[in-house]
Task: structure prediction
Amino acid sequence: MLSNLFRIKWVRISTIITLLAGFYFAAVVAHQQRAAQREQPVLLTDNCRAKLSRYGLEGGEYYRSPYRRDPGTMVPVRRGYSVADIRAIERGCVIIDDLQGEQAQASIERWNATRFVRGQQTSCDHCHQGVGDKQGADGRPQIGSLSLGASWVMADMYDRFTGLLLPFELRQMQCFINSSNGFKPNIADDLIRDVTAYSRFLSAALDLRIGQRYPEQGIDEVTVSQTLKRGDDYVRGEALYRQKCARCHGAQGQGLRQDGRTLVPAVAGPDAFNLQSRNNFSFVSTILPGFICRNMPLGEEGSLEPQQCRDIAFFVSNLPRPAGDKQGPLRAAWQQLMMHGMPPLVGLMSELTHGTGAP
Amino acid sequence: MNMAINPDSLRPVAADLKRDLLVGLTLAVLVIPQAIAFSTALAGLPPYFGIYAAIWGTLFTALLNRSPVFHGGPNSAMSAVIGVTLLPVAPQFGADYIGYALTLIMIAGLIQLLFFLIRPLGRLLDFLSEPVVNGMICGIGLFLIFKSMTGFAGLPVNTEVEWPLWIAWQTFMAVLEIGNLYAIQIGLVTLGTILCARQFSRLRNVSILVGIVVGTLYSEWLNHRYGLENTLVEQTADFSSLGLVYPSLPLFSQEAIPDIIAILPGAVTLALLGLFQTVAAMRRINRQRGTFIDSRNGIFADGVSNALLPLLSSLPTCASFNRMSVMQNMGATSRLAAISSALFLLLMMLFVADWIAIIPIPAMAATIMVVGANMIKWDEIRYHFNNRPEAVVFVASFVSVHLFGLFGAVVTGALLALAYAKWEKAHPRIQLQNNVLRIKGNIYYGSLPVIEGTFHQAARRYSELVLDFSQVHHIDPEGIRWLVSVKDLPEVTLIDRRSGGERRQGGRSRRSDRRREVCL
Result:
């Protein structure tokens, strides 16, 4: 009967027009919902509240940062921020600090960020520590701490592998795709704009100059020349991992979660960064060692030798983790099998050999 | 001998001529929106590439291919391959990108010529059964719909390749949430106009043109009312200054070599997708018209054209199913229709170039959506689901476009087609009626295990077994060796049941067809 109805030309035409009008209506509603979301005040996380108040983010005609990079120098006066600007900066900060929305009061607040992340545990500030602005005890930015502000002033960089020009926005998208093992937000998405706004604010607050290369930008990479030059050793890495890392990250790097909050992030398994992330030793062998040497183990930073960092990174990267989007479905299926099949087997083996249970 | 020309005898010729010219004019108008949309929205190239493909590509293929109802020109799938292949290599619409695109097309043309020069390679294309080609075309149709969603909403093109099916919903949400509402309006108006126009049989063939015109008028009205600086709707580039021929050179520099090597799989995909469609189209024309024209004609014409077109800044060419069906419906009789369509378009270049500049990109994206949806034709797919192997091949080919990308789909399609053909051959029908074992099919290395299995089973059961080879079409050397080894067994005798007289005359035996038997 329905098919008979669709034989009538005018029924078909009015159906087409109704469907298209419905689509437009849905788009208008979604736009309004999003606009309303942007109007709402932002619920800051504790870290963000401390960071932003320390840098004196408030409305006004001029912005003058209270932060002094070098005592005695003048901090230039910059154009101030509007109310909408401040909300964008605050949203950007919250996204960096709490990508998964674990600390959000209402789950709706991070509705557009969590959608682009696959795992349960990844968050920007696992790598970009100190909400993208890690500082040492002396109040100076830590060398090679992936500072967002210092990264913004390098705004467009050439990709080291492809040689393509990568704008700041595209670099953020790579974080979403690979380090968060997620989806790519459209480059026009205000999620990206918010993080950019926060990064710009950081560069203004820290008095970083456009085009300059600062030591806190990027990673303090551990190259082969800093090591024993005898090659990196998986077995040594495994022993070191058991000794130094397994206590928090777990014997198989699955991380630690409690009450829906990530206490220690996973370095392997379905919630970790994926195979195409540059954290991956087999992709770029200098980045993860650099991160480990500077930031791990917590409380004993700097206690590891460069060769030890490389060995640990080698071991960690060989634990099973999700495949990258560009690696195709076969690799993805294989990695899924490894991620879900290996941990029980490894646990069983350690029980048989050491008489101890799984981690 | 009467040399005077009888006007009556010319009348049908004149009528044919008139009809062919009319078909040519219609096609010249029809191809314009497709040409612009394919080049700008899919290939990431300036719009004149599509127009020149519709002129020179159509002209070259029409002159080189003697099939009367053949229409070359820009092709959606091939344009999409260019876009997907070059996206990671250089920014779209840039000088480098154009150079790489021309190189890609030229390499594809040379690969196509290889398919012409190496006969077995060309024959290999005939193995591409209809389900393989249809599955790929449907998959590409769906891909085009996903791919045009960003352009539809005035969003920036995604600059990295990923699995379209995986992120389709992400793109859809982005369209709903952050799309430019003016762009969405223009896209929806265009889409609605096209879909509604298609309901009227008279407007069906020109529906895309009508949609583009209405969409452009609407965007002009929006720009007039709100100003282009507020609507921010992208428009197609102006190319009125280019003239009738715009020579160009592919990029073959020292620095470009690594990138050229990287895009070689794309060139193979481009070449194969073009040839698949040309060969399939020629096969279809042959069947519809009840004639036979060797598909090598088409391969040759495509290869030569695609090797030359990069010198004329043009997209690659291959057979166009939709334009050829228009030709068939309007009753084109000769190659004049295709040739005249190219020449009419060349003339029109002088007049339409100014107008093309104001066509909005969302209207182009809406066109691509309709083109993509048109590639999924239920009437043609339906038959594949009646037969299980065909259904499997169709579905696998369809899915592989989305899982493995276009190059992967081409490889999968070729493997599937070969596997399908071999599987059919490797399973001869073997019947055991009492003590007569009838083999229908081929005896070759692939089917021997099947035959041997049944043979030994039957030999164990019957003391006297008769093998009937009368319906065996082909025995390969391995099959002959097997027969010899069977013959050497003490209990087997080979008998030719024909009499000596029959054998000398080559006639047939009385009781049955020519029959060789093995008696145990």
